[in-house]
Specification:
Distance between the termini: 31 Å
Strand order of the largest sheet: 5-4-3-10-11
Radius of gyration: 23 Å
CATH superfamily of the domain at 340-421: Anticodon-binding domain of a subclass of class I aminoacyl-tRNA synthetases
Number of strands: 14
Number of helices: 13
Bound molecules: 5'-O-(N-(L-cysteinyl)-sulfamoyl)adenosine, zinc ion
Structural class: alpha/beta
Shape: globular
CATH topology of the domain at 340-421: Four Helix Bundle (Hemerythrin (Met), subunit A)
Order of helices and strands: EEEHEHHEHEEHEEHEHEEEHHEHHHH
CATH architecture of the domain at 340-421: Up-down Bundle
Largest sheet: 5 strands, parallel
């Protein structure tokens, strides 16, 4: 499906470094393996929205974090292949459509467009491929068939579902020695979240309770598609990301991103399914997870309904640059809450930055080399595990010390924050 228009990308003098990020799978800081030589292209995948409600600040935090990563990679001279899915058919979407008496396709289309508008307003670089599940049924179905043919997957009959002997399909985790490697979760941790996050541990006929659903045979009133070798049905959730990521980025790619709520089961299963398809060590080489953003001490989630929406703030006339600054004031690994105080702090900061940029923009001569000064500082902070609070603090400190244009490093402040932070002054 079409993505959204790309914002103009300001080129900065010199180059940043390929960033390090915290990898969930190894619980360590890892420099992304891209650059001249074997891996010139960074393959970045982020789990996209399930379009049954509008984009909230938790989603925005995830997509802005990935955007900062992408901007750092481009600034370091890497080529980028960026892919994002859209879960445009799944239980929560179907349930919401039923509740609101609206066609599920119409609901999805409406929320996807709102998401595009939100991402455009927030100056998020669009993916090269924004890929819906509905348009990828064949691609996903083919992978399910492959898993059945290799014996990695098995069928469970759907009792009384349709009288045609249709089967759901599951992956057999007992054959996957890598299971658990991505999340690092032990069984107790897995049990604690599996059922809440779409899992069906008690389903009769499963070989092990965490086995993920690959294909769901048609149930009455649910949409379904025909794929050769499978009963009419639709893909399970995790296989969509295994299939889409590997189809567009290859069986091994640089980094898989999403919120920490996806560590288990979603990213664990996506990775293990790719192992089953392509062999051990397939899928992402690094897993980056955005901590949960809450509101007044609770996780912000569509199901709880405690949402601060990007679109609502935009309607109220808030500057998208302000929304970005509020998000960037928090490191991606630290959970935080959206608060009125945070917004006011962002507002003051944006005003300070705009005034400093206006005062120094015309003074181009006499700046230091790009390897020194504020530009170099901001680059160094971002290359160190996307330290956005550190980058903001470096800019604040430069302003507090008198906003000397000689300390900028061959680029106006407005260009530095536009290119690296996506904030328009
Ligand atoms: N469609 C699936 C991924 S394949 C999904 O999780 N959709 S979502 O709409 O629920 O979430 C979209 C993205 O926002 C995911 O990467 C998710 O991890 C992230 N996310 C959701 N809630 C929060 C939150 N409160 N804080 C931070 N990130 C969040
Ligand atoms: Zn996903």
């Amino acid at each position: 499906m079409i993505a959204w228009p790309a914002p103009a990308l300001t080129q900065l003098p010199g180059r940043g470094e390929i960033p390090t990020v915290h990898d969930t799978a190894t619980d360590s800081l890892r420099r992304l393996d891209v650059g001249p030589g074997e891996n010139p292209k960074a393959g970045v995948y982020v789990c996209g929205i399930t379009p049954y409600d509008a984009t909230h600040m938790g989603h925005a935090a995830t997509y802005v974090t990935v955007d900062v990563l992408n901007r750092a990679l481009l600034d370091a001279g890497a080529q980028l292949a960026f892919v994002q899915n859209v879960t445009d058919v799944d239980d929560p979407l179907l349930e919401r459509a039923k509740r609101d008496e609206i066609d599920w396709r119409e609901l999805a289309e409406r929320e996807i467009q709102l998401f595009r508008d939100d991402m455009t307003a927030l100056s998020v670089l669009p993916p090269d491929h924004l890929v819906g599940v509905v348009e990828s049924i064949d691609l996903i179905g083919r992978d399910v068939v492959k898993l059945l043919e290799s014996g990695a997957a098995y069928r469970i009959g759907v009792a009384e579902a349709d009288g045609q002997g249709a089967d759901d399909v599951y992956l057999d985790l007992s054959q996957q020695p890598e299971f658990g490697r991505t999340s690092g979760f032990d069984e107790a941790q897995m049990d604690a979240v599996f059922a809440d996050r779409g899992g069906d541990p008690a389903r009769e006929g499963k070989r092990t309770r965490f086995d993920p659903l690959l294909w769901r045979a048609e149930r009455e009133g649910e949409p379904s598609w025909d794929v050769a070798g499978l009963p009419a049905g639709r893909p399970g959730w995790h296989i969509e990301c295994s299939a889409i990521a590997t189809a567009y980025l290859g069986p091994r790619f640089t980094v898989q991103c999403g919120g920490t709520d996806l560590i288990f089961p979603h990213h664990e299963m996506s990775a293990v399914q790719a192992d089953a398809l392509y062999g051990e060590g397939a899928f992402a080489q690094v897993y980056l997870h955005q901590a949960m953003v809450g509101l007044e001490g609770e996780k912000m989630s569509k199901s709880k309904g405690n949402l601060v929406l990007v679109s609502r703030l935009r309607q109220q006339g808030e500057d998208p640059a302000l929304i970005r600054l509020v998000l960037l004031a928090h490191h991606y690994r630290t959970p935080w809450d959206w608060t009125g105080d945070g917004v006011e702090e962002g507002r003051r900061r944006l005003a300070r930055w705009r005034s400093a940029d206006a005062q120094t923009r015309e003074v181009v001569g006499g700046l230091d080399a790009p390897s020194a000064g504020l530009l170099a500082d901001v680059r160094t902070r971002l290359a160190d595990d996307l330290d956005t609070p550190g980058a903001l603090a470096a800019i604040d400190a430069w302003i507090e010390a008198g906003a000397d244009p000689a300390g900028l490093g061959e680029a106006p402040l407005g260009d530095i924050v536009d290119a690296l932070l996506g904030v328009r002054l």
